[in-house]
Amino acid sequence: MELESILLPGMDHKRPLVIAGPCSAETEEQVMETAKALASKGIKLFRAGIWKPRTKPGGFEGVGAKGLAWLKKVKKETGMYVSTEVATAKHVFEALKYGVDVLWIGARTTANPFAVQEIADALSGVDIPVLIKNPVNPDLELWIGAVERIYNAGIKKLGVIHRGFSSYDKKIYRNLPQWHIPIELRRRMPNLPIICDPSHIGGKRELIASLSQQAMDLNFDGLIVEAHCDPDNAWSDKEQQITPDILDYILNLLVIRDTNQTTENLNELRHQIDEIDNQLLELLAKRMRVSREIGQYKKEHNMAVLQTGRYDEILKDRVTMAEQMDMNGEFMKNVLESIHEESVRQQITVINQ
Ligand code: PEP
Ligand code: MN
């Protein structure tokens, strides 16, 4: 792919490229107040959702085309560039009519090749940066397919946004980062800029700083962060929006390490970790097999499963060894206790057979 930079004139070349603004444009006042505060912090590219895809009907579905006039005002009064999400050909035409500088395709849209193709056709002959969010499901080929459709329409200023992947089992994150997927995308398309969306990955304010740092440590090119002048009263995604002041604080604390550690090296190291974990699992399984044989012996000789003397000896010996190998003794003790517990469980099963 012959790509061109997504940076517009006047935008900084150093990492991270920051896109910030509210999840949704709500009112002209909210848009202008947020935009002015962000511009005063040096943000060059404003974001605001005009059309909001909602999981269920009844939620705030965006103000629609009238919000585009507010974005035009943001450009005029702050000098920032503006961006919004498009999901249909009509959105593309309307956004372009109002001079929106950068368009992005949302996660739900990327998951639908018909919708992406419709947008691609609408973009034919247009020369603006387009950012493609990952599909909601962890399918790298589908993500790449969307990139190819937009590229084939003639868009050369292309980038992607990593916003995490939905999962039924929500624990820490709203959308699981599954970092290996954008890393593999980087390996396959090294020139394609990757922007991280810590707001939609984390789903909560507290996670934005650490996710942003992680993205920088993985050599991502930029961040798209939801910022709102009054996050607690936002009409959408209020738990994850932060004030322009907090955003500025988070950005100032970021450590940008520009090392030679390439994604390829990282991938290689991760493969080694996978390999070692496999070996660990195989060794553990082998240990359990031997342990079951001991269980069989204990059963035949009417011995108790738990032989405390032997266990204490193992603990002491292995903890000392671990310390000599630069590992924390307490850590090793915990590992051994867990292994021992499972071992005892397996022996009891054998004895009760
Ligand atoms: C958004 O950026 O506000 C949005 C709707 O994100 P996503 O498409 O990642 O869910
Ligand atoms: Mn949002």
Give the arrangement of secondary structure elements.
Blueprint: E1 17-21, H1 28-40, E2 45-47, H2 66-78, E3 81-85, H3 89-97, E4 102-105, H4 107-110, H5 113-123, E5 130-133, H6 140-152, E6 158-162, H7 180-188, E7 194-196, H8 198-202, H9 208-217, E8 222-226, H10 244-253, H11 263-300, H12 308-324, H13 329-351
Parallel strand pairs: 1-2, 1-8, 2-3, 3-4, 4-5, 5-6, 6-7, 7-8
Helix pairs in contact: 1-2, 3-5, 5-6, 11-13, 12-13
Bound molecules: phosphoenolpyruvate (PEP) and manganese (II) ion.
Largest sheet: 8 strands, parallel, barrel
Shape: elongated
Give the strand content.
Answer: 5-15%
Bin the helical content.
Answer: 40-55%
Work out the number of β strands: 8
Q: Largest sheet, order of strands side by side?
A: 1-2-3-4-5-6-7-8
Secondary structure category: alpha/beta
The helix/strand series, from N terminus to C terminus, equals EHEHEHEHHEHEHEHHEHHHH
Radius of gyration, rounded? Answer: 26 Å
Low-pLDDT segments, ≥5 res: none
The average pLDDT is: 94
Question: Total helix count?
Answer: 13
The hetero molecules present are: phosphoenolpyruvate, manganese (II) ion
| Distance between the first and last residues' Cα | 63 Å
